[in-house]
Write a sequence for this structure.
């Protein structure tokens, strides 16, 4: 437990800042982090810090940004990008500090019955008081209130949107869990938690019902949800991303099959779940190879864009087209692009990279974005011709004309298969959890499905699995991909699944003979 706390605290908390304290009703000094006391009803005994940018609209949007266990509001202010984005886009940021403890300290209460009820007390009511304070003191816009957070803060993001859908317009949860995942305080510590122990698996309707029961009879609009998780996260298992997707798609009455998928940045695999009219209600990012260390650089901007806070109704002038597009370093599976920066009256916020198949014809579609003047496209097919264009985007959403076209042909490749690498997440006297069991495409061609086999030691029995279809014949186990993780790009594209097994008490053997095809 001590090691878990130390790792989580170092991943989610930064050193505290020296901050000022103001009394109720005294606005914070602009462009500085300020502590507010006496902000209102505070059953969670929380601390409040607020960041107000130098320039903001008369009625600014409000973003509640929440730290992980062992962290603090000032630490999350210092260690994340939300304050610098507030300077750019003119919203106010609330940084709460949690003081609750359930096995370790400074965690947001997502486990108690009080926290799961509207007006039940605890941390949610304290956070609502902070929002009310900003609305009163800075004329914050009650129709543009958003939540985001990391780890415990990501859990509270999903929690607040479930219990108070009438307060929030959208949320971005980094490394969180579905609402009502924790059964109580005793279920929160990771060593004994069923929620984060690696075996949590409920149906979409069960997850959705938990949200609907948090506010019985509510028929208003639901806040949109953005979800982020690292595929190598073993503290809050990656398998919980799928559970969160199931919860929020069910809340919106959407299919669990994404309406679109793409890779906006290297190793960020994005799945979107939209209505029939095209409105994205749920957006999920699987960050390949990332552990319990989100958000990483640039991710906060994607959250703010999801909230709709990077647009302006007054700027209608698009940027100039990018110039001098070139391609270099082309291999069998990728190529690197570079171009000269565009110019814009209010500033370019990023570039969209478009790709079309073949030397002629075909349709250019977006394959990624970049905040700089370069981009590396991976997952290409060997010995294949592609064409690329780039266009710029500004803060108001204006898009430039496309650049000139550059054409490349990938090198000839080799065919191959895949590898399976198990990680022991936890084990005890009569059982263990293997999570993640990582499947990696080791070939230079895309694979559309995979099968892993391994052998259980004598006396061992599977008791649960996730993110795959599993069958057993004697001690031989066969695992097959499912719809959302069967396709892996060439050049080390990866996914994972996990399982739990029982064994005779005192037996320390583990499965062996992993093979992937």
């Amino acid at each position: 437990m001590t090691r878990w706390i130390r790792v989580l605290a170092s991943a989610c908390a930064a050193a505290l800042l020296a901050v000022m304290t103001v009394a109720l009703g005294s606005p914070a000094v602009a462009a500085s982090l300020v502590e507010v006391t006496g902000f209102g009803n505070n059953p969670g005994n929380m601390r409040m810090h607020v960041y107000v940018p130098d320039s903001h609209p008369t009625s600014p949007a409000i973003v509640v940004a929440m730290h992980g266990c062992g962290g603090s509001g000032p630490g999350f202010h210092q260690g994340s990008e939300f304050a610098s984005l507030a300077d750019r886009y003119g919203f106010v940021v609330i940084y709460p500090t949690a003081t609750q403890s359930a096995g370790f300290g400074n965690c947001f209460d997502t486990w108690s019955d009080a926290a799961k009820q509207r007006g039940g007390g605890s941390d949610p009511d304290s956070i609502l008081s902070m929002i009310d304070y900003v609305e009163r003191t800075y004329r914050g816009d009650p129709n543009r209130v958003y939540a985001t957070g990391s780890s415990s803060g990501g859990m509270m993001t999903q929690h607040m949107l479930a219990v108070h859908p009438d307060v929030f317009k959208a949320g971005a949860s980094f490394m969180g869990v579905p609402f009502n995942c924790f059964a109580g305080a005793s279920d929160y510590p990771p060593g004994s938690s069923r929620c984060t122990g690696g075996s949590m698996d409920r149906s979409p309707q069960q997850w959705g019902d938990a949200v609907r029961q948090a506010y019985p009879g509510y028929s208003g609009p639901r806040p949109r949800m953005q979800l982020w998780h690292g595929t190598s996260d073993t503290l809050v298992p990656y398998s919980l991303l799928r559970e969160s997707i199931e919860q929020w798609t069910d809340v919106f009455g959407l299919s669990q099959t994404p309406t679109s998928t793409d890779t906006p940045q290297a190793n960020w695999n994005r799945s979107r779940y939209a209505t029939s009219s095209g409105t994205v209600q749920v957006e999920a990012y699987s960050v390949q190879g990332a552990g319990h260390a989100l958000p990483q650089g640039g991710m906060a901007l994607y959250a703010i864009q999801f909230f709709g806070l990077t647009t302006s109704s007054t700027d209608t002038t698009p940027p100039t087209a990018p110039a001098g597009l070139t391609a270099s370093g082309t291999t069998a599976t990728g190529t690197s692009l570079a171009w000269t920066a565009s110019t814009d009256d209010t500033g370019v916020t990023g570039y969209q990279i478009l790709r079309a198949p073949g030397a002629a014809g075909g349709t250019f579609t977006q394959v990624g974005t970049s905040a700089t003047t370069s981009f590396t496209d991976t997952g290409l097919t060997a010995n294949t011709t592609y064409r690329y264009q780039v266009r710029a985007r500004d803060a108001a959403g204006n898009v430039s004309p496309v650049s000139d076209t550059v054409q490349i042909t990938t090198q000839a490749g080799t065919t191959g298969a895949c590898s399976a690498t198990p990680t022991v997440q936890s084990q005890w006297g009569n059982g263990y959890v293997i999570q993640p069991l990582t499947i990696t495409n080791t070939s230079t061609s895309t694979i559309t499905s995979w099968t892993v086999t391994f052998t259980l030691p004598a006396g061992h029995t599977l008791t649960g699995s996730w993110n795959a279809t599993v069958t057993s014949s004697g001690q031989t186990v066969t695992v097959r991909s499912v719809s959302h993780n069967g396709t892996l790009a060439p050049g080390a594209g990866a996914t994972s699944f996990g399982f739990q097994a029982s064994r005779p008490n005192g037996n320390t053997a583990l499965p062996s003979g992993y093979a992937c095809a």
